[in-house]
Amino acid sequence: MPEYVTQRLPRQWPVVALAVGLVLLMAGAEMLSDRYGGWVFSRTDFFSGAWWQLGSAQWVHFGGLHAAPNAASLVLMLWAMQGVVAGALQGAALAGGYIGVAVVLVLDPACSYYAGASGALHGLWAGNAVALLWGLGAPLPRSHGLRWLGGAMLLALLVKFGWQTHDAGALHTWQALVPLPLDLADFPVYTPSHTGGAAGGVVAVLLYALWFRLAARTPACCPAGRYQ
User: Fold this and answer.
1) What is the pTM of this model?
2) Is residue 128 within 8 Å of residue 15, measured between CB atoms?
3) Where are the domains of the chain?
4) How much helix, strand and coil, in percent to the nearest 5, is found in the chain?
5) Which of 149, 132, 142, 107 lies closest to 205 in space, CA to CA?
């Protein structure tokens, strides 16, 4: 396993702090959005100068029952992967997810409005899966069990995307199987954000790993601690 990854395996507190901080950020953004408005992505507003909505829209939701599952998923994923995937790689995956969603929002003229963190969470899931599959963040060298876990996570994501692509009623099918106390028709799921977020998370993790591989080959005249 690359030394740069071993050196960056997270202690528990930074990952927990990141999870709590992001949940508090979402809660604060929700309150500010309810009070002042302007945080949900609106295509018309964005092209009129509201550029910040590319980020703010991913921190707010259409009500508490929309926000709660995303907040819980964020905390659970960060907690489950601590000590398994390096904290920096998890941060890169989540950041890449946010960026991937933002790119989709800009490029898709069919998206008139958007809110929610589910796209970024797909980036975190996909980035963690790639890190495990390729052994980028495993605490044990060449851990086959964790590689299998990463492969299973990635396969599950691909199956989900395939289902959504070939079954236009996939969401309604899922609702029938798992009834929720919520009318999801009030905020239809925007599946391109999931695809964009996942792609962004994977790209971010691979770029992060590549950058540190290149840094490790820097001539000895450069202090090694600079990259730690």
Assistant:
1) 0.79
2) no
3) 3-167+190-218
4) 70, 0, 30
5) 132
Distance CA 60, CA 83 (A): 29
Contact 94, 21 (CB under 8 A): no
Which tens digit of pLDDT belongs to each residue from 169-204?
555 554 444 444 444 445 578 899 999 999 999 999
Q: Which helix (H) or strand (E) holds 42?
A: strand 41-42
User: Could you give the CA distance from residue 102 to residue 122 in angstroms, rounded to a whole number?
Assistant: 13
Checking phi first, is residue 38 left (phi over 0); if not, alpha (psi -120 to 50) or beta?
A: left
* Residue 45 predicted with pLDDT over 90: yes
Q: Which CATH architecture has domain 3-167+190-218?
A: Up-down Bundle (1.20)
Q: Are 133 and 147 in contact (CB under 8 A)?
A: yes
Question: Quick one: tokens of 200?
Answer: 């962004």
With H, G, I as helix, E, B as strand and everything else as coil, classify residue 113: strand
Q: For the chain, how big is the Rg over CA atoms in Å?
A: 19
